[in-house]
Specification:
By secondary structure, this protein is α+β, with helices and mostly antiparallel strands. The chain is built from eleven helices and 14 strands.
Length: 262
């Protein structure tokens, strides 16, 4: 592993101050450490932010749930407040990776990495989230730019994610049996004014499926999707599933999600 300077940040201001053009923030390290060991990435400065208290914790209001960026997947999954406010979000967190990943990996790290098969980006889109950073607030719809690409600047740190509480929602994941990443994951959320269907794992980046949203907007039931044929021209095709097969998985997962909405 290449040598680097290690910084222990006491607060967000310290973390941002230590950032450079060749730096990275470390929290759970479930993606960062393996990539550095395999020499897929290298940095001059690694800034540890996992012990910053302002990046931890869960707050629930009448219309939103705000989760600190350094909050682990396990903490989200176990939170009684989240289970009550947005049970689908707790369910999603409980299906991420294995026990080690859930107890070390963090919400902020997941969305900043923006793996095309990660679960949390679909929650951010479906729950119309706002990403809080050290510099600004970013709508989830403008945050995820492409494969492993976000709207974050080099010295910008995710501090929290604010999820809107929907009328009902559900997340259905069809995982790769080895990695537990989503071959397809569909998050359906029924809000007061609209229905959002966010899909992960099927394309290069998380996206809203407008075809499904249109049908559910007219009739919010799994039956409304029975005769729908999804366009799979931009869907991923690999050794795990063809593009056409992924389209069928998206549709069946969406139907299950609608049926499970609560």
């Amino acid at each position: 592993m290449k040598q680097f300077n290690f910084h222990e940040a006491k607060n967000v201001k310290d973390a941002v101050k230590a950032a450079s053009k060749k730096s990275t923030f470390l929290s759970g390290g479930q993606t960062l450490i393996p990539s550095m060991k395999l020499r897929l990435s290298s940095f001059d400065d690694v800034i540890n932010v996992k012990n910053i208290k302002d990046l931890q914790g869960i707050k629930v209001s009448s219309n939103s749930v705000t989760i600190g960026a350094a909050t682990t997947h396990a903490e989200v999954a176990a939170s009684k407040d989240i289970k009550k406010a947005i049970p689908s979000l707790s369910h999603l967190a409980g299906m991420i990776g294995d026990a080690q990943v859930r107890n070390k990996g963090t919400l902020g790290g997941s969305i900043a990495n923006n793996d095309p098969s990660a679960c949390y980006p679909s929650a951010c889109i479906a729950l119309d989230a706002t990403i809080h950073t050290s510099d600004r607030k970013i709508e989830a719809s403008k945050f995820f730019k492409g494969m492993f690409e976000t709207a974050l600047k080099k010295d910008e740190l995710v501090t929290a994610v604010e999820f809107k509480i929907p009328e009902s929602s559900s997340y259905v994941k069809i995982p790769n049996p080895a990695s537990r990443y989503a071959m397809v994951g569909v998050y359906v959320a029924k809000h007061k004014k609209d229905v959002i269907c966010a899909v992960t794992g099927a394309q290069a980046v998380v996206y809203r499926c407008k075809e499904i949203e249109k049908e559910l907007g007219n009739n919010f039931s799994s039956d409304s999707l029975n005769n729908l044929n999804l366009d799979y021209s931009e869907m991923n095709s690999d050794i795990h599933a063809s593009a056409e097969y992924r389209a069928s998985l998206v549709l069946s997962a969406a139907q299950k999600a609608v049926a499970n909405c609560k």
